[in-house]
Structures are given as structure tokens and as C-alpha cells.
Write a structure and sequence with these properties.
Blueprint: H1 7-20, H2 25-37, H3 41-54, H4 59-71, H5 75-87, H6 93-98, H7 109-118
Helix pairs in contact: 1-2, 2-3, 3-4, 4-5, 5-7
């Protein structure tokens, strides 16, 4: 029986999958998002760190890590991860500008500089 819109069920399911394969990066990414949406920010951060270790050249993994770090108010670390994401090719200017996870960084000069670096030229 499926349980639509039951995040705790989904979390338990993906945790059980991860127990069988601790390097299943797609599941790690999904769990990171689910944990964060459920307010389990520290657990989400753990998944994001794990994903960056397994996929060090993945721009989205670094972006998600930056978001988690920003949510736990580790601004310098968040900016470092965001800088790495952009260096690796992250370029979604619109989302980065409006992403609520990054609200704590939006007044920081380095965040503004990164955003300007991605800003589409008119």
C-alpha cells in the first residue's frame, strides 16, 4: 500500500535502501532533501556532506551543501561551498537569487558578487 505525501514513510524507505548501499548517491541526495524539508537540518547537512565526498565534482551537490550550511548559520562555510558550486558550473541565477535556504547570505558581499557573476548579460 502506497502512502502518498507521507515524508516519514519516504524517509524510512530511503534509509532502508541506503543501509543496503551506503554509496547510492541518488538516495543520499533524496534523503538530504527530505530531511531538510522535515526540519531535520543537521541530518540533511550530513547527507549533503556525504554526497560531496562521493561526488566532489558535482556542482549541485556543492550547492545543496551551501544551502544546508546556510541553514545552520555557518556563513563562511556556506559561501565556500557556494563558490565551489559556481566554479564547478552551477549557474541557476534565478533560483540562487530566490532560494530561501540562502536568505542568511543574501546581504553578504561575497554572495552578491557570486550572484553578479551568474547574472545573465542583457
Amino acid at each position: 500500500m502506497s502512502r502518498p505525501n507521507d515524508p516519514e514513510f519516504e524517509i524510512r524507505f530511503f534509509e532502508s535502501v541506503l543501509k543496503r548501499d551506503a554509496t547510492y548517491t541518488d538516495v543520499i541526495e533524496i534523503l538530504g532533501g527530505l530531511y531538510t524539508k522535515q526540519g531535520r537540518i543537521v541530518d540533511g547537512l550530513k547527507m549533503d556532506r556525504r554526497l560531496v565526498r562521493l561526488r566532489p565534482s558535482n556542482a549541485t551537490a556543492h550547492y545543496n551543501l551551501a544551502c544546508s550550511l546556510a541553514l545552520v548559520k555557518r556563513k563562511a562555510d556556506a559561501l565556500r561551498a557556494l563558490r565551489e558550486a559556481v566554479k564547478l558550473g552551477y549557474n541557476d541565477f534565478d533560483w540562487m537569487q530566490q532560494d530561501p535556504d540562502l536568505d542568511g547570505l543574501k546581504d553578504h558581499p561575497e554572495f552578491v558578487a557570486l550572484l553578479n557573476q551568474l547574472k545573465p548579460q542583457s
